[in-house]
Amino acid sequence: MVKPRASLALISLCFVFLISGVLSATFTLVNQCSYPVWPGILSGAGTSQLSPTGFQLNPGQAIPISVPAGWSGRLWGRTFCSQDSTTGKFTCVTGDCGSGELECTGGAAPPATLAEFTLNGAGGLDFYDVSLVDGYNLPMLVSPQGGTGAGNCSATGCVVDLNGPCPSELKLVSTTTGGGSDECVACKSACEAFGDPKYCCSGPYATPDTCKPTDYSEFFKSSCPRAYSYAYDDGTSTFTCASADYVITFCPAPSASQKSSGGQYGGGSNVSLVSTSSGISTSAPLAFLTSLIISIAVILWQLIKPFH
């Protein structure tokens, strides 16, 4: 009886691996901007890095990334990127991750619009948000796809351009964008601009009771009601879902994703997944699952065969 029990245990383990594969999520990154965006991805502490951690996303392009169950981390878009022809160093005017390469090994230099995720967290829920706490560089929308009713599964983000109306003292201007003159390419947070603890929610302001909204955080909040505007802006800025895939869209059309000036978003994103990078296949999650099923079938056959 030892061998059948051992075989049963191994078979059960195989099904655990199969279920783990099914529970992985797919993030589809979509660029609806009129210019290229270079997404960056950083995994949280104790979480394995995704692959790739950085790539070029051209206008109209969509690229899927397979994300394991239990992953946490953040995604953002880098803009105005280039590679030095002499040194080969890769840099971006906004959202640069400091690696000097296309792929990232660190987080985004502020200001940058961030999408933050914790998958399969408390109660089996995914927790996600779009944060402007570190400033803003381009519009972003996060839309759950196919999630269950365990969470609200609402879309969230900031779908408007804040670089134009950004307060002058928060503007990040650059002459390296090809326009020939100073151009506002991102909007800093008040914390970055002034370093004052009351804007950074640090020192004596490091609690929800002492750190309150300011005129600067209200600028972001009034324009993007569902996005984080300062560190303790949890009540209206964190969303949950379960067993969902996610579409992260850069420069979503406001008319397609925002129902009213009050910032009410629809449950899905009206995006067209028109093309993919030749280096990253849209069938990657399916190929992985197929390979996993074949491997499990072979193992099962090897385990069962001696008993025939």
The DSSP helix count reads 6
**Distance between the amino and carboxyl termini:** 15 Å
Question: What oligomeric state best describes the polypeptide chains here?
Answer: single chain
Q: Given the helix and strand composition, which structural class is it? A: alpha+beta
The shape, in one word, is globular
Uncertain segments are 1-22, 255-295
* Biggest sheet record: 6 strands, antiparallel
Mean pLDDT: 81
Number of strands: 13
Beta fraction? 15-25%
Overall helicity: 10-25%
Question: Measured on Cα atoms, how large is the radius of gyration?
Answer: 22 Å
What letter string, H or E per element, gives the SSE order?
HEEEEEEEEEEEHHHEEHH
List the helices and strands and how they pair.
Elements: H1 2-22, E1 25-31, E2 38-43, E3 62-67, E4 72-83, E5 90-94, E6 114-118, E7 126-131, E8 140-145, E9 156-158, E10 171-174, E11 183-187, H2 190-194, H3 197-200, H4 215-223, E12 239-241, E13 245-250, H5 254-257, H6 284-304
Parallel strand pairs: 1-13
Antiparallel strand pairs: 1-3, 2-4, 4-5, 4-6, 6-7, 7-12, 8-9, 8-13, 10-11
Helix pairs in contact: 1-6
Write a structural description.
- By secondary structure, the chain is α+β, with helices and mostly antiparallel strands.
- It contains 6 helices and 13 strands.
- It has helices at about 1-20, 190-195, 195-200, 215-225, 255, 285-305, and strands at about 25-30, 40-45, 60-65, 70-85, 90-95, 115-120, 125-130, 140-145, 155-160, 170-175, 185, 240, 245-250.
- The strands form 3 sheets. Strands 2, 4, 5, 6, 7 and 12 form a 6-stranded antiparallel sheet that branches. Strands 3-1-13-8-9 form a 5-stranded mixed sheet, with no helix packed on it.
- A hairpin with an 8-residue loop joins strand 10 and strand 11 (about 185).
- The longest helix is centred in the first third of the chain and has 21 residues, at about 1-20.
- The chain is globular, with a radius of gyration of 22 Å.
- Residues about 1-20 and about 255-295 have low confidence and may be disordered.
